[in-house]
Amino acid sequence: MLLSATLSKPIKNIKQILGQDFLRVKIKIATSANADTKTYIAEFYTKTQVFHKKMTEKEVEIFLKENISVTFKNCVEYTETDEITFLTNKKGELKKLVKKIDAKSKDENSSLPMQNLLNGNFVNNKKNYLLPEGIPVPFLVRLGIMTAEGKIVSSKYDKFRQINRFLEILNDILPQVQKAHQKEKPLSIVDFGSGKSYLTFAVQHYLTQILKIDCQIFGLDLKKDVIDYCSKLANELSLKNLNFAVGDIESFEQDKHPDIIITLHACDTATDYALDYAVKKGATAILSVPCCQHEINLQLKKTNLKEDFSLQPLLKYGLIKERFSALVTDAVRAEFLEKSGYNVQILEFIDESSTPKNLMIRAIKNFADNSSNSLANCKNLQSQNLLNTLGVKQTLWQMDD
């Protein structure tokens, strides 16, 4: 059964035949290999655009037959057992090469233990991911992170690790979330600033397909083209419990009553509006990776500070001032959440070499704490004193003023 096919090296007059100057065509299976009816997604690439088309198994068969060696000189197909390469030479002669895929030996070799030469002990260096390598996951295939055979694309390995790291963090808090959750309703998750939605799709797959948890997931982002793409992909993968909408976090007022709020790299004060929404709606858990904390950095001027202020050296150099501002921002956010009734941790999301925006605020509602989430009760806290000393304002601390 065909899993994927890539056609490349187009002929010069391809536009006359296919209507566009396509550079290549990628075809991937979009449904489970065990499904009765196979559905494929074809991606047609020009220099500036990508066109998508849904195809049946029969349509793919006809398209490949009509275009291999006709409009495209090369094609590579993958089935469950073979890698098939079609090559067309300058004389128009077609050559077919078939290479067997020995999945069993590949898996065995990848999991062979390595020997520590210092002590002679053997260790297995294979990482046990929640979404393991070698098992095709439809959304990862469609997003270009995984091949149709389940192999991770080398250039996307950091993204693959990031997705699994996030799922590990989510998995840690699920018992507490489920304990507080009303069993008769689906688990509700809102992803603010969902972007291309790698993590949104990952959470849906992990909860629905692996843990078999009934859930509803909602993604919000400002970019219409991104939301349109994610909505289309969710529809093509038949993900009925995953929905997206275009919108601004600041003005978002829908009454979602979420169990979990996710905000990954929501820019600057967008994170504050997401945290404020989470607190006001009583979300059980918050997973937030802030980004671009410009607000305090832009306000910090020496004229705002006392002459003997001991942190003056931190504001002398632009890069250090920027990082200091980001740390202050996330520290006061964390204390606000604590005083709003949450147990808060600051975690390293992923390795700093992957992205400098690697700190996560993880907050779990403490239902034994009767603290009010009104800002009026937070005025004399250390964070507010720090903001006053710096002569700056921070959005999350101003919302209830």
Task: Name the features.
single chain; 401 residues; alpha+beta; seven-stranded antiparallel beta sheet; seven-stranded mixed beta sheet; 12 helices
What does this entry look like structurally?
With 401 residues, the chain is an alpha+beta fold. It has twelve helices and 16 strands. The strands form three sheets. A seven-stranded antiparallel beta sheet has the order 4-3-2-1-5-6-7. Helix 5 (157-180) packs across helix 6. The longest helix has 24 residues, at 157-180. The chain is elongated.
In short:
The chain has 401 residues and is an alpha+beta fold.
- Cα-atom Rg, whole angstroms? 26 Å
Estimate percent helicity: 25-40%
Mean pLDDT: 83
Largest sheet: 7 strands, antiparallel
Distance separating the two termini:
63 Å
Topology of this structure?
Elements: E1 2-10, H1 14-18, E2 24-29, E3 39-45, E4 50-56, H2 57-67, E5 72-79, E6 82-88, E7 94-100, H3 103-110, E8 114-115, E9 122-123, H4 138-142, H5 157-180, E10 187-192, H6 198-210, E11 215-221, H7 224-236, E12 242-246, E13 260-267, H8 270-280, E14 285-291, H9 294-299, H10 318-339, E15 342-348, E16 359-365, H11 382-390, H12 395-398
Parallel strand pairs: 10-11, 10-13, 11-12, 13-14
Antiparallel strand pairs: 1-2, 1-5, 2-3, 3-4, 5-6, 6-7, 8-9, 14-16, 15-16
